[in-house]
Amino acid sequence: MGVLNEFKAFAVKGNVIDMAVGIIIGAAFGKIVTSFVGDVIMPPIGLLIGGVDFSDLAITLKAAQGDVPAVVLAYGKFIQTLIDFVIVAFAIFMGIKAINRLKREEAVAPTLPPVPTKEEELLGEIRDLLRAQNNRP
Fold first, then answer.
1. What are the transmembrane regions (predicted)?
2. Of 36, 73, 98, 108, which has the most beta carbons under 10 Å away?
């Protein structure tokens, strides 16, 4: 029972739940970026370099023979994955940069001392009068 309770305490901690949510959102974000790169970014780039689709770039190392498939070095898919990574990394960088800017603005904002209430002002005056009376020769 001790291990089960420890696991329950571990699994319910905020950090684990936050991490799980981050992984799920990250997976969904990855799909969005993959679609953005494959469907929006890559077609114009392919058009600029002569209609080449990176995902189709490959070198056949060994041709197919009967039921044995060809051995292919698909370097175009690797280029596509690198471009996906650069875009994701840049998007994360921009997001963190914006968050850090907001944190700096919060930290820089000066906090004004609280304005004393009327009661506090009166009590301060009474204190000062009592000090003045006690300090008389």
1. 78-96
2. 36
Alpha carbons 57 and 93: distance in angstroms, whole number:
30
pLDDT given at position 137 = 58
Residue 96 vs residues 80, 84, 90, 91, 103: alpha-carbon distances, Å: 24, 18, 10, 9, 10
Token pair 């009327």 is at which residue? 118
Q: Is the pLDDT of residue 100 over 80?
A: yes
Q: Kindly report the CATH number that applies to the domain delimited by 2-130.
A: 1.10.1200.120
What are the strands, taking DSSP E only, across the chain? Answer: 59-62, 71-73
pTM: 0.48
Question: Which is more confidently placed, 121 or 88?
Answer: 121
3-state SS assignment for residue 7: helix
pLDDT band, residue 53 (cuts 50/70/90): low
